[in-house]
Specification:
This protein is mainly α. The protein is built from nine helices and two strands, in the order H-H-H-E-E-H-H-H-H-H-H. It has a two-stranded antiparallel sheet with strand order 1-2. The longest helix has 23 residues, at 55-77.
Length: 177
Amino acid sequence: MSQIEFTQAYSRLEKMLFSFACHLASNEEDARDLLQETAYKAFKYRSMYQPHTNLRAWLMTIMRNTFINNYRQRKRRQVLNDHTSNNYLLDAGSRTVHNSGETEVTVNEITVVIDALEDWLKVPFLMHYQGYKYEEIATELDIPLGTVKSRIFFARKKLQESMRHLYQGRSLPDILD
């Protein structure tokens, strides 16, 4: 199907697509955005359309999937648009979590816990922490890739246990003394 034929076929279906967009979206403006995004994707991926198949169904599938993806993305972000004159974005999350971990755990304490690891765990872990890829670590240490991954995994587990043991049942003043 040529570009011109595709454009003409799309134009014939545009009114029906807008109606479907209105059905999916909450208002006419969102429906227009959805229609525009559908048109963009349809023309961008025109080569993927199989000629002599149902173009209407193909376009409606693109629109439906676009709508669902946008909905999921909005749900993850949980951001509302404030329709007041200043149009600030507001965080719609109902809870905020206070993370006091940054103030309670110092770099020195973490370094002490890392230094306490056995060398066979510490070396691959530190290399990974410094940005080396698993394959690079395996080559450098001359050990199998799976061994590198498991050692880093075990190092993380030991560090978690050590940090948990270090802070379990102790308050911040006890730790700082």
